[in-house]
Prior knowledge:
The chain is 47% helix and 17% strand. By secondary structure, it is an alpha/beta fold.
Amino acid sequence: MKIDSLDAVQLGDTTQWIHVRGADASNPVLLLVQQGPGLPMINEIRRFERLLGLEKDFTVVYWDQRGCGRSLRRHNGDAVITLDLMVNDTVSLLEFLRDRFDTKLYVAGFSLGATIGVYAAAQRPDLLAALVAVGTDIDGEAAGNSAYDFALSTARQRSNTRATRQLEAIGPPPHLDVKQFGTRVRWASNFGGVTTNETYGAVVRGLLTSLMRSSDYSPGDVLRSVRGITATQAALLPELATLDLVHSVPRLDVPVVMVQGRLDRVAPGDAAQRYASTLEAPSKELVWFENSAHSPHLEEPEKYRDVLMRVRADLLAKT
Length: 319
């Protein structure tokens, strides 16, 4: 990699960390905004490079957001976490990267990261060349109902008494408590509604392994990262339960590509279809991944890479 730097950046009232990687300094810059709440991104370098190889065609920015991963260093674990602050951080980082690389940014957001990307694009369209939003959290109420109904109905169909008992105990959404939310996510994951080929336990083990194998994290960073997931969820769950992008962000002045897994049960496809049909944008597209749930970029990586390369080619042709 001609570009391979781990940098601390002051964003708002916190010091946050980015790892920038790329094979050619002339390539466009791509900021990755991780899903959550509370999941780090820098630890994903190895998996993303293996599955997607983005550094060949982009200068890729991996970012541990407020409340996540390496950015919990220097007493940042006490920082206030709200969706507005995370959006403000994103705008500040986009400004920093624009000044550093003297270009507009491509932004790829995943789940909550896609939502943050939408809000940032709405605030500062001048900073973005394009937004690729994957499994966007669009409608908090619909998302909660979809995940819960899917998990409970599947548990009953499979006569899984443990899952049925736990899901009935928490009752229907909203689930504003971390334990309730965790129960819903765990069973929706185990039944294939989050990632088609991984259980909740496999996802957790993969996260821990990636953190421990990454040279960018100390043992203390690993511990803080795990604790930060719970703290960030506790802070953001009430806000996420009331999300409604159809009404709060009806227009974006940047090109938008929405990527949606057909089997996604936590960011349901009908919400994506509704938003794609009503959103006003210079150009917009909804791309369905038929064999994916909530992580199409990891479940069908070749197709996802093709989407990014097409967006790159289309915009470079216009400049």
